[in-house]
Amino acid sequence: MKLNYFDYLANTESFLHKRSTWVKFLVTHLYFAAIFYSESLSSLLLITIIILINLLLTRISLKYLVLLTLYPIIFASFYLLVFSHELGWVVIIRAIASVFNVLLLFSTAPITEIIALLKPVVPQLLIDIIFLTYRVFFIMLYRFHLVFKSMRVRGGYNPKKLVTNLKHVGSAIGLSIIQSVDLSERLYAIMAIRGYRSGFMGSTTKGFYSYNLYSIITAVITLFLAVML
Question: Where are its TM segments located (predicted)?
Fold first, then answer.
């Protein structure tokens, strides 16, 4: 998943991005309620189309949209072998709609605003720790990917030598951890130089604006259709 792309997309300008953060979060839960409450294929298709239209309004790249949708399609397709034909398709469409719903949230709300929703119930220092842990986790994955790629290019990975592979992978993990610790120390030094004293997380968008009504009404209607159909 291209984290930097969604960070960029979440900070672009559209009427969906201008909604209050709590509205984005509420709408996401309403869509999830509609997705998991609906059991008919027709209603799930309608819900998926509604969410997809909203997602396309965020100007998300079709390349990332297709790639991120392939994962649930591949894994959910195994249900076609276990359940009946219609029930299997219900599981697949439900998985696709769930992916679209999550992408809609992360395409319109920066992660700082999402985590900042915890401010009323969680201390500011803990919120900062959650955010840094989230960032460092993906940085560690990316660094391990680079180390593993370098290991394969240099012939350190051979599918026929399991013991050797485990030894080299262990070294790669150790190197990634050392690099991550070094990155954390440099990040802390940068934050200290810039005067960090806890509380660098962005605040949520407050207020109630006219463009919030579109999302709330659409989500409520979608949930109503899921109940009625």
Answer: 30-57, 64-83, 89-118, 125-144, 208-228
Query: Count of alpha carbons within 13 Å of 157, Cβ hemisphere only?
Result: 11
Q: pLDDT tens digits, residue range 119-162?
A: 778 777 777 777 777 777 777 777 777 877 877 777 766 666 77
Are the beta carbons of 136 and 208 closer than 8 angstroms? no
Residue 205's pLDDT is what? Answer: 54
Owner of token pair 């309620």: 33
Nearest to 117 by CA among 206, 208, 27: 206
Give the contacts of 9 (CB within 8 A, at least 6 positions apart): 58, 59, 60, 107
CA–CA dist 62, 54 (Å, integer): 14
Per the CB < 8 A criterion, the answer to whether 173 and 151 are in contact is no
* CA 179/CA 207 separation, integer angstroms: 42
**CA atoms 185, 189, 191, 196: torsion sign:** positive
